[in-house]
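Chain particulars:
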Amino acid sequence: MTPASSKRPRDLNQLAASIVRDTTEDGPGDPAPEKPEEIQRLRENGRRGGLKGGRARADNLSAEQRSEIAKKAARARWKSSRLS
């Protein structure tokens, strides 16, 4: 804790903010941030998998299975819009 923040504020919101600030400050044991190139590569791989996923799943399901999934999704959508 820094000397300036050793006296805790009385206001609950300020106290919460100071606790978060104290716990999230960068310390000597924090891992190094990832490199931007690595982050970009991970994003591209995730997007590539996401683009393939739906089509691959649909290709492996029978027409009856796809129909059941669609019916279940429609029921879920309409259930939330009803005023009970």
